[in-house]
Amino acid sequence: MKINMLMIGICALALASCEKWLEPDPENIRNAEQMFIDTHFAQGFVTTAYRTIPSYYNQSDFATDDAVTNQRSNAFLQMATGSWSAANNPLSVWNQAYASLLYLHQFLENSQGIKWSEDEEANALFNIRLRGEAYGLRALYYYYLLRNHGGPTSNGQLMGVPIVTEFLPTTADFNMPRDNFAACLQQIYLDLDSAEHFLPIEYSDVAHASQIPERFAGITQNASTYNRVMGRYSRQLFNGLIAKSFRARAALLAASPAFQHASNPATWEDAANAAADIIQYKGGTNALPANGLTFYNNINEIDGLSDGINPPEIIWRENVQANNGDREAQNYPPSLYGQGLTNPTQNLVDAFPMANGYPIDHPNSTFNENDPYAGRDPRLRHYIIYNGNTAGVNNTPITTGINSTTDDALNRLETSTRTGYYMKKGLRMDVNRTPNNIVGRNRYTPRIRYTELYLSYAEAANEAWGPTGMGSHSFSAYDIVRAIRRRAGVGTTNNDPFLEECRTDKEKMRELIRNERRLELCFESFRFWDLRRWKLTLNETARGIQINGVNYTPIAVEVRSYQPHMYYGPIPFSEILKYSNLVQNTGWE
């Protein structure tokens, strides 16, 4: 009986305490108030936004005339061949962007009340730096939202996305209409203004107080305090140079043909001036990094990175991955134990000129269709593995012809090339994927390269002032293109007569600039967006080459299936269903 009574008592106590047992203790529930007592928690609001930054390296080249993939289930392959819809959009950034924006809004509303350090000077510096990062990241996310989801609606308006600049609780009304494109662009610029105001152009230690930038010198005259907050330990966080880069990206997007509209005041001159700021900071036309075209395989440079330092070509990058061979495992040819995932097209190969600078279809090119890779632009051998080009740790010749004795041959296996080519750009040739002897290497993924911004200036300057016009700057579109081509080894022995041919013709220079952008940024996920903002055809059939001895036979590999409205991405179908005030872009209804 005593035992039974004891059990009843325990059960009664358990029932009485059940609610407490099933609920988390208050200290396990985090809310905004915790920001004021836990600085790590507070900083986490900004850190979370860093973690979901969209990548330029997202394989969208598979959806263009530059590449196909042998992975038949790939989302971009499916998109390019007819499966793209508002409900099936691998390019959507809607959810991740708005989720990150909510974190940033909450941080900005509370950050000034947070005590980041007992040292008052350090506290003030931490406050402005973190606010600057948050403003910069907010601009970044609105840029991606505008690029990926902005477009015209059926009533003829050029629309962006809903602009939200405050934290919204779950009880808020989320049924908000879209703001127009120009308003979104202005919001991006306002946030970038704030970021540039709060942040140093780059994070770097100073040796003494006289080197502290003027706008921070009023806060501290202590070099160690400045270095603690704004020095090398903060490298790869959002800074003023990154803000300038996103201003240039946004300005180029807004000036492009796809977004020309009476309500959009953006001009090519705006875009040229924004990009020129970065070129001037770098040191002008001649400061273009000499080894920038092989940034991914500059072995000593990559292996020597430390303290968050960037290579000369890089404005912003992801962290270094040590002992990594993932990209090679995906993209090496089968004979090098890779999956051959990315197959460059004949379309792209044909875009590489001859080393003398002439396009291959120009009468002065000296192109030989029976020896098509001889005498070509040196970038071709750096970026694409063609029949007879070498790759891997032993510089192994890769044979893609149908008589190849390896599985690198055209369509030999599911992992073989579909076009007769494999991607080389982005891969380190000293990575070994041989079973039982696998060796990885250090690598990083760029977020912004200087070459991109140089090309952006060339494009915008040519449109604004013509090939040799300079506006208020000391360099022209012609100067930039000449520097890029000379760095690549194009036209160096004959003074590049084709470039001189384009020098007096704005339309010819436009085509040349667009082609240089295609080559320099290939496989970096720019092509899809460039074609769309230029409103060029998306339906160019992806072509390849079948090689049988000395016979080169062009082949059609993959037909593209885009509709005219697909120059602009959709608002997610799920959002249209939930919110009646959201108007879909034309054609996606």
Automatic annotation (TrEMBL):
It comes from the Bacteria. The keyword Electron transport does not apply. Residues 61-209 form the SusD-like N-terminal domain. Its main location: membrane. Residues 312-588 form the RagB/SusD domain. Pfam families: SusD-like_3, SusD_RagB. The keyword Kinase does not apply. Keywords: Cell outer membrane, Membrane, Signal. It is found in: Cell outer membrane. Belongs to the SusD family. This is Carbohydrate-binding protein. It comes from Sphingobacterium griseoflavum.
